[in-house]
Amino acid sequence: MSHYTAPSQIAERQLAYFAGKKVLIAGEMEDLFPLQLAQHCQSVSVFTTHYGYYRQLQHSSTIQSYFGAELTEDVEADLLVLYWPKAKLEAQYLLAMLLAKLPSPCEVIVIGENRSGVKTIEKMFTPYGSIKKYDSARRCSFYWGQCHHSPNSFDLEDWFKSYLVQYQQHTLTIRSLPGVFSHGEFDLGSQLLLDTLPSLQGKVLDFGCGAGVIGSVMAILNPHIELEMCDISALAICSSQATLAANGLCGRVFASDIYSDTATNYDYIVSNPPFHSGLETSYQVTETLLQSAPDYLARSGQLFLVANSFLKYPPIIEQAFGNCETLNKTNKFSIYHANKS
């Protein structure tokens, strides 16, 4: 049984094809297949917007890895392998950005699960050249094509979506890149969380900051806090930084794989945590966030969390903190609070 994800297994069937190529891999990767691929290619580089994935690869001696919202380094490659991301707009973004960096013509392979909408690549790729399905297995498809018309340039600014959010008497401009949670709307869970928060002081962490809605509102309502915002996604980091700037707000925004890069002395940790990893539902990140939260809070620090009401988070919070209260509830969301005693 292969320890690779289904998209990598279908790529593994084509190993001979990669011989001698200079490969750049990007998209929704979740395994260490690039390390195996490096044994069959001239070179392998990986570009990822996912900080956790970057941390797994960053010390590898066989492949070069890059993390960010945009690939700014010069990478020598003649074959782009795109693992289809969960958002179609993110696939468009990655293609436009990466093909602008690569020579023309260059070969392109796109792999993804059929349920993820990967078959839309045939139409999406038309401006660049032609692409066709080459193989399918494990409910995945493997497309191969050639880019003959590289985009002349790529401007990150063109990919931001801006929208206004009203909160109390404030109007905020939210700026968001493709694939970022809250892309184009103020979700009800975040709103309920903000409605429930007390006035804040000291050092505040917005965990899983997305496009920066929660952090920005907290900064407007509590201008004296020391605001920090973290996320695992470079696209989210970039969006939150742009949102703060658009509203004249200050805060430190950084990438963190759960608590890998955070401080340990927060007065408040506030979160609307993600529970999707790729196409799958995953609670592991939030469970770790809750279990370890006391270690990252100051002596009388507090945790505030919004979650879908069906998720069984109170026992985890209770075990970590010795207390947990439900401060607010709708038929869909619950707001949980705990004190570090």
TrEMBL record:
Pfam families xrefs: MTS, MTS_N
InterPro entries named among the record's database cross-references: DNA_methylase_N6_adenine_CS, Mtase_sm_N, rRNA_ssu_MeTfrase_C, RsmC/RlmG, SAM-dependent_MTases_sf, Small_mtfrase_dom
GO CC, one annotated term: cytoplasm
Domain of life: Bacteria
All residue ranges annotated as the Methyltransferase small domain in the record: 172-336
Methyltransferase small N-terminal domain span: 8-163
Catalytic activity: guanosine(1207) in 16S rRNA + S-adenosyl-L-methionine = N(2)-methylguanosine(1207) in 16S rRNA + S-adenosyl-L-homocysteine + H(+)
Family from the record: Belongs to the methyltransferase superfamily. RsmC family.
Subunit structure: Monomer.
Name of the protein in its database record: Ribosomal RNA small subunit methyltransferase C
Species in which this protein is naturally found: Vibrio cincinnatiensis DSM 19608
